[in-house]
């Protein structure tokens, strides 16, 4: 049976490393990383994500500003708010929780965040630098960064490996495909990106030494699509029901986990896999930002 790659456990390790760095920064420079989380409205999923981000930031000793705005804030006012934080020297990372209400243009908001403080890694400047690679790379988008970190920390060989990515979204599939194909450690892979128009999904997946699935379709990847011994990273988070006992959502990934773990070499669970890594990478980006601001390297 496959080795389970636990995001929950890796999160603990990485947060311990970050906490250490924050202490060192405080001692050496008298400053700590600053993160503002901007939440518009009260979408329950967004509220829970932001709450977790705030809690994690505070546990690391960050300067944390929680800025909640009403659902009907105008785009102009939101852009002005972002500009205020762009100019605030105590803030190193600006996180605007997505999705935003329909009357606000999400692209305009992402583009308004200073690329220097774009710890989500969604700004076109940072995505462009990510594609160029090497020394240019600044903020990597958090979910792909978490996926790569899991692959590396689980001891999976990436050099020359066949990586198949299911999904081509801007936040997961597309960036992780680029990252795994870059030069350097934890990459150097041969990447195939597949999607809804792909002709033979099964045949592509069966070749994968590393299979990364970010489709948002429960049970999409069948056990017979998995190459024996492959590393399987299941990014999907699907609400497939509600627990009668707890009243909480029952989550499932895009892979049939129980069957897949009998074939794969290593596999991530849902929940407790990629999810915890995403917030962890947000914290890591914010610490990096604080160092870069100290060194004027952004
Ligand atoms: P998206 O809907 O933007 O993109 C899904 C992609 O999958 C599309 O490019 C589409 O072409 C492809 N796809 C969909 N159905 C397919 C099919 N039947 N066959 C082949 N390809 C198919 O979604 P997203 O934002 O990339 O998120 C994907 C999943 O990952 C969702 O379940 C989401 O909740 C989850 N997610 C998890 C995290 C995390 O931190 N764990 C972060 C982001 C997204």
Structure summary:
By secondary structure, this protein is an alpha/beta fold. It has 10 helices and 11 strands.
- Count of alpha and pi helical runs: 10
CATH architecture group name of the largest domain: 3-Layer(aba) Sandwich
Kindly report the spatial arrangement of strands forming the biggest sheet: 1-11-8-7-5-6
Number of strands: 11
In the predicted model, the low-confidence regions spanning at least 5 consecutive residues are: none
Helix content: 25-40%
Estimate what percentage of residues fall within beta strands: 15-25%
Structural class: alpha/beta
Reported by name, the CATH topology of the largest domain is: Rossmann fold
Cα radius of gyration in angstroms = 19 Å
Ligand list: nicotinamide-adenine-dinucleotide
Mean pLDDT score: 97
Please provide the ordered H/E string of secondary-structure elements: EHEHEHEHHHEHEHEEEEHEH
CATH superfamily of the largest domain: NAD(P)-binding Rossmann-like Domain
What would the principal axes of the Cα set say about the shape? globular
Largest sheet: 6 strands, parallel
N-to-C span:
45 Å
Number of domains: 2
Indicate the CATH class of the largest domain. Alpha Beta
């Amino acid at each position: 049976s496959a080795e389970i790659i636990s995001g929950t456990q890796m999160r603990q390790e990485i947060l311990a490393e970050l906490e250490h760095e924050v202490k060192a920064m405080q001692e050496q420079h008298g400053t700590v990383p600053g993160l503002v989380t901007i939440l518009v409205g009260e979408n329950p999923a967004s509220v829970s994500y932001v709450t977790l981000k705030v809690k994690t930031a505070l546990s690391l000793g960050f300067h944390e500003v929680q800025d909640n705005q009403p659902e009907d804030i105008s785009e102009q006012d939101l852009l002005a708010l972002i500009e205020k934080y762009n100019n605030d020297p105590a803030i190193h990372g600006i996180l605007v929780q997505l999705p935003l209400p329909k009357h606000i243009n999400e692209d305009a908001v992402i583009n308004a965040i200073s690329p220097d403080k774009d710890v989500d890694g969604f700004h076109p400047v940072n995505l462009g630098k990510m594609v160029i690679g090497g020394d240019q790379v600044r903020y990597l988008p958090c979910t792909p960064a978490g996926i790569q970190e899991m692959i590396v920390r689980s001891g999976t060989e990436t050099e020359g490996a066949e990586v198949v990515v299911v999904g081509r979204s801007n936040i997961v599939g597309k960036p992780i495909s680029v990252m795994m194909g870059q030069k350097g450690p934890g990459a150097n892979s041969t990447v195939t990106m597949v999607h809804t128009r792909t002709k033979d999904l099964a045949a592509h997946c069966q070749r994968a030494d590393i299979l990364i699935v970010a489709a948002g379709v429960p049970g999409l990847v069948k056990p017979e699509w998995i190459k024996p011994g492959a590393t399987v990273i299941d990014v999907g988070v699907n609400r497939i029901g509600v627990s009668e006992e707890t009243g909480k959502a029952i989550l499932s990934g895009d892979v049939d986990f129980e069957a897949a773990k009998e074939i794969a070499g290593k596999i991530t669970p849902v929940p407790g896999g990629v999810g915890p890594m995403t917030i962890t990478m947000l914290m890591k980006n914010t610490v990096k930002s604080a160092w870069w601001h100290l060194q004027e390297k952004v």
